[in-house]
Write a structure and sequence with these properties.
The protein starts with a helix and ends with a helix. The chain contains 10 helices and no strands. The chain is mainly α. The chain is globular, with a radius of gyration of 15 Å.
């Protein structure tokens, strides 16, 4: 039942026409499954589809969060990506996530560039020591984002640089 339920929750989480509170419930389910059943997620070959859902959420356009909540599609994507990185063996998550992040940072679309930098920040925060040694290679990509003409991309680059600096 896990593959079917995860697929339904991924579809629900990325459906921008649904209320954000409903989407957040789908995100919570996915995070819970990633935390409690990571081996089943891997065996069901759900890592790549879940990663794809994260990327869609990270680049989704949205209004600024209200004063009563900080929930945004980007926050949902970050939560799922963090759960993937913390619970699934990094060789299954790190390289696909980082490759996609680098690809996004080269996009003409500012939301995709911002999403790629947010992705890199989450990776830097959650990665193990073996991966930390490889981070300097990507600092140049993040520094390029700090010079981006769009303020949202520059803000995401600042967050990513902070995460890289903490490592």
């Amino acid at each position: 039942h896990i593959p079917v339920m995860c697929q339904l929750m991924m579809e629900m989480t990325i459906e921008h026409n649904l209320d954000l509170n409903v989407r957040e419930k789908g995100c919570s389910f996915l995070v819970s499954i990633l935390e409690s059943k990571p081996t089943k997620v891997q065996k069901a070959k759900l890592v790549e589809p879940v990663l794809h859902s994260c990327f869609r959420l990270l680049v989704e356009e949205y209004d600024e969060p209200s004063e009563t909540t900080d929930m945004t599609p980007q926050r949902l994507g970050v939560d799922i990506l963090q759960a993937l990185l913390e619970n699934i063996a990094q060789q299954h998550v790190f390289h696909p996530a980082l490759n996609h992040a680098v690809h996004l940072t080269q996009s003409a679309n500012h939301l995709e560039r911002k999403g790629g930098l947010v992705d890199m920040a989450v990776i830097a925060e959650a990665c193990d020591e073996e991966v930390v040694e490889k981070l300097p290679q990507w600092v140049e990509v993040v520094k390029g984002g700090a010079r981006d003409p769009h303020h949202l991309v520059r803000a995401a680059a600042g967050i990513a640089l902070t995460q890289f600096g903490d490592r």
